[in-house]
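Bumping with the actual sequence this time:
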Amino acid sequence: MQNQSFVKNQSVENKLYEILKSLNDYFYENELGNFINRYFILPPEQFKEQLVQLCVESDKEIEKVLLKILSPEADKFISIDLIVASFFCHLDGMFLYMANYSREHYEKRLEEIWQVFWRGIQK
């Protein structure tokens, strides 16, 4: 989400996609992101509580961004709570996918799930 001014002038669809893609790219392309991703999936017991807390805090911040994007046009979509839950499921699924598959397969899957997600959240 490096270029927020660019995202600011985009449609809801583009904003949501850019957030999903940017978060995924961060965890796929950066060593720290990749490390964090692997530790969130199977955290060592001695760090589990702290990692879960960090994850909860991170999710809250992402949710704030999603609400800011969706709220002005809420009447066009299904329940915002359902959208947020679905967004996190897609994000979590992609984290698992990126840990086990090539970049090419990961990109293909991201595009496929995005199409279903976008169509599914509209009224």
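The tokens above came from a reply further down the thread. Helices lie at 4-8, 12-29, 31-41, 48-70, 80-100, 103-121.
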